[in-house]
Amino acid sequence: MRALLSDSFQRKLTVIDFLYDNPYQKLTTIQEYFQYNHTTLLNDLADLNSIISPCEIIKTANLEYFLHFPNNTNIEYVYSCFLQVAPEFRLLQQLIFNTYPSTEALAEALYVSNSTVKRMITRINQILLEKFSFKIQTSPLTFSGDETKIINFFIAFLKESYVTSTQLLSKEQNIFFNQLFEESLPILKFAGNIDIDKFSFYVYSIVLRFKQAGSLAFFPENRQLYSNLADYSHLFDRYFSIKTDTSFFHSLESIFFNGHYLKSYKELVFLSKENQQVLTRKRQIEQLLDYLATALAISNPNYHAIVLYLYNLSVSDYGEAFILFPKYKFFLENLTHHYPYFYDKCVPFLKKILNDKSIDRFYEFIYHLIIRWDELQASLNKLPPKMKTGIYFFTDIEHNLFMKKFFTERFRDILAIDNLFTLDSSVDLKEVVASYDLLLTNIPIPDVVERNIICCSLFPTNAQLEEIASYYSKWLTTTT
Predict the structure, then answer these.
(1) CATH homologous superfamily for 387-479?
(2) How many angstroms from the chain centroid is the CA of residue 217?
(3) 447 Cβ neighbours under 8 A, 6+ residues apart
(4) pLDDT (tens digit, 9 = 90+) per residue, 47-71?
(5) What pTM, to 2 d.p., does this model score?
(6) Which of 358, 356, 359, 322 is nearest to 344 (CA)?
(7) Which residues lie in coiled coils (predicted)?
């Protein structure tokens, strides 16, 4: 839902992404990369330091900028700050937590005009319908659509805004949810080993939606989860001021039991004999697991459990898995720095399994595959990491792009290459060399003492290519 942000907030968040991936950059480099003017960029940096505090964008003595995280924060915290301050997300937060009789009342709460609220709702609805298949209706003012997707949106929004449920709930509410969690443990194993924090976000999201809607749609085939509704009704009334009904508890149950979820591998095998679509998807998942097991020469003692989990994941339909911070994409992108091309090898299988689902669902699928397969994790740890490499040939852009393609193909599995050549050719190699494991250039720099520079010919000779490979081998011994 990044597209919901105004141009100004999108620009600021893009600066955060850039500095996170490319620390210690001069102002001119950032300007050049984004094509921003000097004043706009300085104003953005000042605004960002106000938004993301106690995190901070710091300027070094060398006039380079980097993103500083205190020990008690991380990039997820920075993204959560944008959810708290961006007007569009503040509007969504108001509608999640409160009930308003009209857009005028909502405008008053947000300290904006009624026309501004209506324009924002129009923009928000375009994204909500595309990503989550529901919308905000204005008469009455509420969310309208598939209740499961609305609740899943609440869950994602709250998790990214507050990170942990203890920051969201009162002490008494947390104690109650802990009690509820303990009594729900026997059935939670079917829902992917949910922990207390996820459980609290799930249940609280249903509470908030129930407050708004008054009653929630449910499927009659859902079996009863809690044996003593009266006791739980009393406690929900005490801690959340809601008068629960049967629909509330069925909705509470449905968050853990998707109508398509299967509870055992035997059930999956049985259904695959009756349903060709189930059989096809089961085989596609097994083909991916078999391919990885063969290619990496590893076993998979948890095979049936992984197939079942991935099958259930593949048939779930809850909209996007995130609001602003693409955590699975973040996980995979950082993972592939260490395990080159692992994800690329899986993509052909994912396209068959997940069909037209979004790329973020691909990332989510691989994330769950990795964290549930111990032997795969151990095998990946043995794969060589990529060496961060900068290239700068003092020629022109086309030649530098050509050399990047050449080095990428020649050293596909060992180099992660950045092209440092810019239009004004103003890169100071003496300054950037410290940011890279290796710098490849055709410029002789005899006065630089760093040993991580290899000076190549306009096109590298065989001896120079061997030197790059040799340098990587030496570097590998210091990093593993």
Answers:
(1) Response regulator (3.40.50.2300)
(2) 30
(3) none
(4) 999 999 999 999 998 888 999 998 8
(5) 0.74
(6) 359
(7) none
